[in-house]
Give the backbone structure.
Amino acid sequence: MPQPPLDRLLPELLTVWRGGTGPTDGLTTAEADQVALGVKELSRGLTGDRSLVGAAYLNRSDLLGAYLLYYWPVSFAQTLFALKQAGVHSGSRALDLGSGPAPGAFALLEAGWKSVTAADRSVDALKLAKQLAAQTNQRLETQVWDADKGLPTGGPWEVIVVGHLLNELGAGRPDRIERRAAFLASLKPLLTPQGRILVLEPASHGPNSDALAVRDALLGLGWSVSGPCFFQGACPARAAGAACHDVLKWKVPHLVAQTARRAAIDKRELPFTWLSFQPFPSPDVDPQVVRVVSDPLLNKAGRRRVVVCGARGRFSLSAPGAYRAPIWSQVGRGQALRVEEPEVREGGWGLGPATRLSPGRTSGPGSTPTAEGR
Ligand SMILES: C[S@@+](CC[C@H](N)C(=O)[O-])C[C@H]1O[C@@H](n2cnc3c(N)ncnc32)[C@H](O)[C@@H]1O
């Protein structure tokens, strides 16, 4: 069986961070204590009081080290997962924008992209990314780029990954949503005609709600959302004041567990927001295809229920406890389902004797024709 990518990459991250040799299976106790201090500070500054957001925190070597050993594996796993969820197949040219030490770029390389560029304003983070590429015998282009000074040079790219960058742009400003949507829209000349932008953001309340608002604003500028949403109107979760995000279940790597434990952070699951956009309005959406946007729940009447979102918006899909279909018994958040002949019930659809349930396409309108269900 092939070795999982993080098992292969984490010893290389350790070598690059140490700038020399040491145990390859994780941090020593002294190292873990030291890195955990940086992880705590980053966690507080990026997701707690958000005091680091917008600051040049990766210019501090202790915080860059903590990012590399703790957040890098998380972002790498999230990007790899989101590329698959979005039905983005490997291609030729891809850009990782706001790359930091480039976990997104390495996920693209892992997914089979041939020519990958990482762009960020942190020269030190790009230097680490270059060292990691050399260490792993991979080709990575880097570009020093500052969002406040214009667009990156080069392109066109088939996919631009914007990983955990948006929430740092215009943070705290009342017009941050319009600014972020305008920033994404400004990337259009850098995309191939069928190209797309894959945005990843945290799942915490503020960044998730802002990401959904940016989605709505970008749709207002004539773009379409090609995943995970099928619905092309204003986000129904946002309208209801609800969150909407994916959750990646992963096996926590030992290296991450070492510092997570010390920083008292639970990383057993990785909730995060992802959205894929294309710079043209959507063609018609298949009204039978829906995305599961909740975990399964059992109601008092013994019906198994999930919340789904599709061309008709957000509603409930449920079935009696005795309903048997393999795809339903494994139903989970993030899955795309095609539901034919549902029973129309108050508040949603039911699965009945005449209903046919099959995998839906992974992404919404504008997806590549080869995109298939999981
Ligand atoms: C939270 S890190 C995300 C890094 C990586 N993309 C990931 O997913 O883990 C945010 C990155 O955005 C970069 N950044 C923030 N504001 C920027 C700006 N105005 N121009 C360029 N890069 C910026 C930071 O240097 C940092 O590398």
